[in-house]
Please model this.
Amino acid sequence: NAGVTQTPKFRVLKTGQSMTLLCAQDMNHEYMYWYRQDPGMGLRLIHYSVGEGTTAKGEVPDGYNVSRLKKQNFLLGLESAAPSQTSVYFCASSPSGESQPQHFGDGTRLSIL
Amino acid sequence: GQNIDQPTEMTATEGAIVQINCTYQTSGFNGLFWYQQHAGEAPTFLSYNVLDGLEEKGRFSSFLSRSKGYSYLLLKELQMKDSASYLCADMDSNYQLIWGAGTKLIIKP
Model:
């Protein structure tokens, strides 16, 4: 039972490069989320999806794009990486958005030089 | 505005009891979550409170007072493996989680 799987686990980029983070869940959850976690701050929501083919902006969406072409996958893209995007990125999923716990992947540690 | 406050760090002794407090001010309220996060790992769900009172799950209990915008997580019979960060999160009127910065709990022998 894999749960939520994120790839890659680590990545180093140069400023201006682009990349895609992949999140896959095998729990048939409708809702999926992308967060970033920075020292001394709470998790901040980047984008989320309430179902296949839908996406919505969270608290800090600038510089990121997402797609949910298949229910089990949620992709996070950085078009032109900046040092301010150095962070740990977590993907999460939940059966619905209402009062149900979110299940997290192991995170992707991203450094932008 | 939306705000979640919890202490940055706490220290406790193995075998003892510790209470981690959380206060929240958000637009609307749809429940209060507690998560545990070991260093370098993913947050894992501990508890959910939507009504006032105490919810007990083994060594862990969580309390909520909606009128005071206050919750606490109570950990009993502390073990070394309980050393972790504990994250408080409030679900707002849009069913989005607003997260506190986390409380790092250090357990000493």
Notes: The longest strand of chain A covers residues 87-94. The mean pLDDT of chain A is 95. The CA atoms of residues 9 and 36 of chain A lie 14 Å apart.
